[in-house]
Amino acid sequence: MAELNGTNSNDTLVGTAGDDTLSGGNGNDLLRPGSGNNEIDGGAGIDTMAGLGDFSDYTVYRQSTTSVFFSSYKHLTLYSVSNVEYFAFADGVHTLAELVGIAGTARNDMLNGTAGNDTLDGAAGNDTMRGGSGNDEYHVDSSGDVVQESANGGTDRIYSSASYYKMPANVEGLSFSASGAFTAIGNALDNGISTGDGNDYVDGGAGNDSFYTGYGDDTMFGGAGNDGISASSGDDLFDGGAGTDSVYMMAARENYIVRRAGENGLAFTYIGEGAGDGGRTLTVYDVENFYMYGVLHTLAEFQAELPPDGSDSIDGTDGNDTLDGYDGIDTLTGGAGDDTYVVRRTGTLVVENDGEGIDTAKIAYAGAAWHLADFVENGVALAGKLAVAIDGNALDNVLTGNDGNNTLTGNAGNDTLIGGNGSDVLAGGSGDDTYHVDVAGDKVVELANAGKDTVITALAKYALAANVENVKYTGSAAFAGTGNALDNVIDGGDATTSQAIDGAAGSDTYVAAGAYADYQRQLSAANDLVLVKGTQSITLKNIEQVEFSDGVKSLAELTLNVASARNDTLTGTDGNDTLDGLAGADSLLGGDGNDTLVGGKGNDTLDGGAGNDVYSIDAAGDKVLEAADGGYDIVETTVAKITLAANVEELRFTGKVAFTGIGNDLDNVIAGSTGNDKLTGGLGADGFVLGAGNDTITDFASGVDHLVVTRKVGNGDDVIDDAAIQGVTGGFASDAELVIFSQKVASLTTTSAAKAIGSAAEAYATGETALFALHTASTTAVYLFTSKGNDAVVSANELVQIATLTGVVTTGIDDYGFATLS
């Protein structure tokens, strides 16, 4: 590795075989790097890089308008070059502008080639590439890339990684440089087009075209001109079009079964030279010449030797063969392996033996039904809209339709019938059959007592045909499924949309996607069970049981204590129950345990029984029944005025309006909300929890009741720090979280309160809070102070009244508490 630096003169720098750095400096320098990874900077002056191989040995990438990067596998070199004006390749000199013109970036580039044989690669972006004269190579990776080639500008080729490419004018060659299927459209020249290993489509257009395809099942159209293809693997189709067309590189004649494929058409099925070699078929139309292992055979020759009506007798191999007799009434014998028979006419005979693979017959004609030959498992209607009819045999058949109106009859065995997109008639016969119903026009015909049968469908609405037991939904939209007179199993599938299921007669089962605990249970207005999971609602009518992923529940179990819009009676257990009455005038009986009773709409009666119960009240007519010493009980309500029922300890308002709450004879806790609430404790030692407004306590008894402040005061904990009773204005400690003024004030406005409070002994920091209590001759007011400046003065605009205690002329420190309501 060497680092070579030039001077201000015209220098010559020669690199080594290692990774070098060459810096020319000022002057017109000659730079000759060696092999390896080299960094070259010509510096100022007119510099030349020499010692390079042929221009076509390198791939060039543009870094900027003054720098390029190029590599060569042949010479095992990588060059990063800047500020060099000329490049002396072995076959000619190119300028920096020329190299920059043919190398792309990640942007949308304009690349211009030279008069030589250029390689233009725009890299990412939608690039425009102009090769100029010479035999140029273009790399296209986007449908937005544009290749512009001049007429008679050499023999040019495009390498495309896009899955579809239409050749521009004046370019002769096209190669696919990615994987997967490729569609290639030629131009008016003599094109050479090569694809990959996907199932490709090639249309050569005019000109004498040559196609080279890979291992996929390819379709090729030669168009006008004398076109040719090279035989390859896969089931290929080649339509030569006008002109004298040829197939090259075929195996010897004895390796093929040759059959007619319509007028001027032939099918070559390769049977190989040993077991497992054969099976692929090349079908050609309007192709005149066939080069088979060096020997030329012609279309006329094959037409002369084949039966004129196309009736063939074709024997397969021990491999997986595809046998297609094309025209005529054929005899097709598959032998061992998983064979495919293409049946194009009624009367075609398929010969298959027991135990010789899983075999398929593809039916390619409409009209009379084709009966599956013995030992053939599957029948398929060839793609299209032919009205194909297929009869099964005694095996477990899979019969598949196409886009036409098919008739598929399974007969004996456990058959699977797949109708396809047409309006099909599906008749399973005896056995446990499966029907795939794809369109509303499909008709299922099933015999009575002929097995356990299942319909699989993605239709949004489906009613089971007679004598079919089960249906499974596989769609994602809302589903309406209806059973029949049998004992049905209706499977809702994995859909998360709503479903409406009617089992009809019989003892029916619905299959749910989740576990029992995943669902909430309700009753509809029609008294039907409704399962709710997130946004999904499943209404079950005439369903006797539900199968969850973790077990089966009967209808009686599922409807026990399930509310509806009617007047329900819900009874809890000895455990901790949650009962929700929904609409209607309901009766909820919690029983033992810590129960939660939600009345819902309507005037409900709620009896929690023993235990610590929570009652949710949302109607003024709701009635709570609680026994004495029946636990610590709480009422939560949105009703604007309520009196706490006997034997209930706590009342919480959860609404947003002003609230009037009245306690009972017990030691109550009464909590307001965001409004200016009016709270009355009644008898007992009561705790009043202040909300966000200015709450009025009508019967506060100092020394007996407690005022609970839930807002942040001082350091925010539940301890009242440094509380004080102040007999004069001002002079109190700023860290006192509660200050009670014992002297009377004339008015409880914030202005009067601020004047009576005065200033603390020390300054408050901005945002610090404290409570102040002041008294008139008949009322006590509590203020929350929030400092708005770094000073000791308590101003009116820093005070918010949070409680008014009517009839109270003095309070003590023990009357107050800090807490958070849980």
Automatic annotation (TrEMBL):
Pfam families referenced in this protein's UniProt entry, alphabetically: HemolysinCabind
Alphabetized PROSITE patterns for the sequence: HEMOLYSIN_CALCIUM
Assigned keywords, A-Z: Secreted
Disordered: region residues: 1-39
One of the record's GO molecular function terms: calcium ion binding
Domain of life assignment: Bacteria
A single Gene Ontology CC term: extracellular region
InterPro entries: Hemolysin-typ_Ca-bd_CS (IPR018511), Hemolysn_Ca-bd (IPR001343), RTX_toxin/Mannuronan_C5-epim (IPR050557), Serralysin-like_metalloprot_C (IPR011049)
Compartments where located: Secreted
Comp. bias regions, Polar residues: 1-13
Name assigned to this protein: Calcium-binding protein
